[in-house]
Amino acid sequence: MGAFIEGSLAEAKFIGDDIFPKTLLPSAGSNRNLAKSVIAERESLIAALRRHRALLFRGFDVASVDDFERAVEAFEWEAYEIVPGSTTRVKLSERIYTANEASVDLFINFHHEMSLRKPMPSKIIFCCSEPSPEKGETSIVASDEIIEKMEERMPEFMAKIAEVGLIHGSITGSDADAGTHTVLNQSWKSFLGTDDEVEAEKRARKSHFSEKLNFFSNGSAEFVYGPLNPVFEHEGKRAWHIPIHGYTDNINMATNKFGDGSAFPSEVFGIYEQLLEENCIDIKWQKGDVLLLDNLVVQHARRPGKPPRRLLASICK
């Protein structure tokens, strides 16, 4: 890749023979225009993403929303339409949004972006507009590695999941959460654009893999998914696509049971979270960094930080 040289990242790790993530810097004598460099090396970059799961571009001149958008468009992936969801994003341009408007001191759990939507997006690209002065890292983990570890640590659980599947419930924010800076700050009414429960269920089945909705008096609702197999395969790599622990530290925002209705073993959640923490890496942001993730095989999370922390995001089909 003539426009790039491989950099080193202290936090990076090897998964087999492949570095995760692969860090790319401007080559000597090349311009620092990321969009032009991507255009010149597009096919080799796509191949590198397929192999390494994540690419970190560092040291390029990505100083504005326009710079970032041009770099995103250089890959020629179709934009993923972002519709109202359970969290708040601000649209900054045709393809660029703020990553999440939740207060920066809140942890956001590991997840594949919009994994419960139809269709699930294949790529997510972040750009650091302003790093947190303290902490605030984005954590990434290879979902296929997590599945291997789960099979080692919990073989009976994984065998039963493969046999009967999983029923997962994801609970939206309540009416009182609307407009706050919590992680899940949208009720089902704003989420689905209707206050009619029958219409809401129709829209949920169309836009999500949800089979039904359970409505609560505080204005929240539970999206019920499954029974389904939470393990998906993409180009030879398996991934755990269901956020069984939810998106926040509040364990009451997610429910789980086996597809036959029986309860999960109590130790599953602790082991799952332990495996995520043991196998993830924390990306310590620098201003202008661009991080490209294969969303089908990589989960990401947000560590608590301090303002001002500003990350931009673009999502691709």
UniProtKB/TrEMBL annotation:
<dbReference type="GO" id="GO:0016491">
    <property type="term" value="F:oxidoreductase activity"/>
</dbReference>
<dbReference type="InterPro" id="IPR003819">
    <property type="entry name" value="TauD/TfdA-like"/>
</dbReference>
<dbReference type="InterPro" id="IPR050411">
    <property type="entry name" value="AlphaKG_dependent_hydroxylases"/>
</dbReference>
<dbReference type="Pfam" id="PF02668">
    <property type="entry name" value="TauD"/>
</dbReference>
<protein>
    <submittedName>
        <fullName>Clavaminate synthase-like protein</fullName>
    </submittedName>
</protein>
<dbReference type="InterPro" id="IPR042098">
    <property type="entry name" value="TauD-like_sf"/>
</dbReference>
<keyword id="KW-0560">Oxidoreductase</keyword>
<feature type="domain" description="TauD/TfdA-like">
    <location>
        <begin position="40"/>
        <end position="312"/>
    </location>
</feature>
